[in-house]
Task: inverse folding
């Protein structure tokens, strides 16, 4: 039986009449996969990504707010933080904007989690929990061809010893959704492909996948969230915030920018179009005219 406390109409009718909120938005992702009433959806997602290392039977959702430690420091809110049944701490993030510092930020998030654990007298450093960060990106962030990349501390080649893993205490996973179709399916398990497809475009999920209870549960919850006015309002607010972040990286044409900067601005607008930002939002953020944006939109479709 599906563990769902909401009264939703049938999946097929909702798919045709209600536009679903995108799980690639961090607010929507956290509401969907970070709910206590739907923990098994998160467990299923983690097992699809970790593929038995470790196998997760259950999770406890942990606080996600990290207060700044200095007057000029940053306050961080994680999307999802959970502790698995074997004590592994997992941080799962949807990253909506590529800030160009993915590895450094991921390590910083790991350090925030690690600083909570104090080694007491008589304890070994081995008692520090394993920490895994999983960052799902909706655009390319590496030069690598694959979709998923696992990062651990490594011994580099020193001319005598071979390259080998130093520790798996701190593991990072970077998943680039845009490269999923270019990666042979044999490289990943079936559930990984299904969940990545769901996160990219839940409305495209084939009916056969809804036989998987966790996927069906996730879609029913997403349908409910998409119909809820308060959730829609929170999503729109976050959508506008992301628009402002794009704006901070975009140079206004009115200031007489150079050709290279214009190309960068056009590329940012193309990304906004690909993420389904509205035309008015893009005009406000970019400084481009409606005609210029419509031209870029036409190029995106034809390309």
Result:
């Amino acid at each position: 039986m599906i563990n769902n406390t909401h009264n939703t109409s049938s999946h097929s009718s909702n798919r045709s009449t209600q536009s679903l909120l995108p799980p690639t938005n961090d607010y929507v992702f956290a509401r969907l996969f970070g709910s206590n009433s739907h923990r098994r959806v998160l467990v299923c997602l983690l097992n699809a990504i970790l593929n038995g290392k470790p196998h997760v039977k259950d999770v406890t959702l942990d606080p996600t707010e990290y207060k700044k430690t200095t007057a000029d420091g940053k306050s961080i809110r994680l999307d999802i933080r959970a502790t698995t049944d074997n004590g592994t701490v997992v941080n799962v993030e949807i990253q909506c904007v590529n800030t160009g510092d993915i590895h450094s930020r991921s390590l910083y998030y790991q350090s925030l989690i690690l600083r909570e654990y104090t080694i007491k007298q008589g304890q070994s450093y081995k008692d520090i929990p394993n920490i895994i960060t999983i960052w799902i990106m909706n655009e390319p962030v590496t030069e690598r061809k694959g979709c998923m990349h696992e990062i651990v501390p490594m011994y580099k080649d020193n001319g005598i010893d071979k390259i080998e893993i130093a520790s798996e205490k701190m593991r990072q996973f970077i998943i680039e959704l845009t490269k999923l179709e270019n990666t042979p399916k044999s490289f990943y398990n079936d559930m990984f492909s299904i969940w990545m497809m769901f996160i990219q475009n839940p409305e495209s999920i084939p009916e056969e996948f809804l036989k998987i209870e966790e996927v069906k549960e996730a879609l029913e919850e997403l349908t409910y969230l998409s119909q809820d006015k308060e959730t829609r309002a929170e999503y729109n607010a976050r959508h506008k915030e992301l628009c402002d972040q794009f704006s901070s990286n975009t140079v206004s044409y009115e200031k007489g920018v150079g050709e290279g900067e214009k190309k960068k601005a056009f590329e940012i607008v193309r990304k906004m179009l690909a993420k389904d930002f509205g035309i008015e939002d893009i005009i406000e953020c970019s400084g481009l005219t409606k005609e210029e944006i419509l031209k870029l939109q036409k190029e995106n479709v034809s390309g």
Observations:
- The longest helix spans residues 229-248.
